[in-house]
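The passage that follows is intended for readers who have already worked through the single-chain material. We present the inputs for a multi-component assembly, then the predicted structure in tokenized form, and finally a short commentary. You are encouraged to pause after the input and sketch how you expect the pieces to fit together before reading on.
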Amino acid sequence: MKKKLLVILIAILCITVYSILGVLACTEFFSGSWPSANPLHVHVDSSASAFTQAINPFCWNYKTSKVFFPSVHVGGTTCSSCKVFIKYGFLPYENVIAITQNYTSKTKIDSWMSGSWVKSVISINSRQVMLSPTTSFEFGSASNFLRQLVIVHELGHTLGLKHQILYCPESSIMWRNPINSSFNTPRPHDANTLVTKYGP
Amino acid sequence: MSRYRCLIAIGIVLVVGLGILAYRHIVPTITLTSSTALYPGYDTAENMEYASEVVVVVSVVGKGKSKDVNDWLYTFTPLKVERVFKGDLLPGERIEFAERGGYERKVTGLYFIGREDYVHIKQNSSYLLFLIEEGDTGIYFTTGGPEGKYVWPLPQEATAENLEFTDCWGVDLDLYNSILARYGGN
Ligand SMILES: [Zn+2]
Ligand SMILES: [Zn+2]
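Having made your guess, compare it with the prediction:
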């Protein structure tokens, strides 16, 4: 009888620990996933072809064997194997630098968090965004360093990574406000999150 | 007799099926998107106000209409300006407020496509909004993404629930305290 009680108590403990971990995991990555993220071909729309130098998905490679960006394909017609699309243009009603949307079907708004992704679209906003009275950000006239920072951050979303929690003590390219960062490639924390999501 | 039973069975299935379908068309199925945006991120109320064309307290005065904008779904909701902290709007004026996400009707039912990083405004509620106008359209959107919208009157206890922020977005306490100090006094 006592044994039974113990088993129940342990079960309750396990469920509590699991649910706490579940809440924490909320800040790390989306529950949806790519059927395979190796390879993920990147297609740069002709609207973004001027920024090809800054489009560096390769810095996400070799963190895990499950994630690999082999190539960046610029302009022209879309290749059938391309899964990641990068566009540049004016986004109405958005004071944002970029939006990334992963899709579970080819139709436009079937973009659930969970499920199996078929494509990811990174939309870069051409709008000038004020940051403070003395600083603004405009992708079109930003430095190559900052452009890469934006693209690498958005590609993290493409891979299913979410923004880091507020006041994360570790540096991360997935910090939700990365524009003032001194780095523009994934940090060890980002690599760890990727391994947690995909395996080694 | 068995034919009669068969008809009744088909009838029941039809009524139940249509009932479920009707229910799904009346009560929206809520889904969240994985869409995630890189917002400017303001550290103080002063900076966010500077980046905004208008800072206003509004009340929601009608239901939002969802529309497709360049393959994105947006909801446009009528607001009444109650108080003006910045900008050339006047109390009593009506504006439209654009939010990404919204309602979509499919054959299988009505869906609300929400966002993991943002809670849409609610009917019969008041908000403090930091806004930018899209050209001269009378349509406004928030300056700081999720951080451009606050429940009014400003709650003293800054929880995600009180402020209508999603848990995954969370509340930037430094920014909120700065907003509370600047606009919460009266
Ligand atoms: Zn391609
Ligand atoms: Zn982001």
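Commentary: Helices of chain B lie at 2-26, 45-51, 160-163, 173-183. DSSP finds four helices and eleven strands in chain B. How closely did your sketch match?
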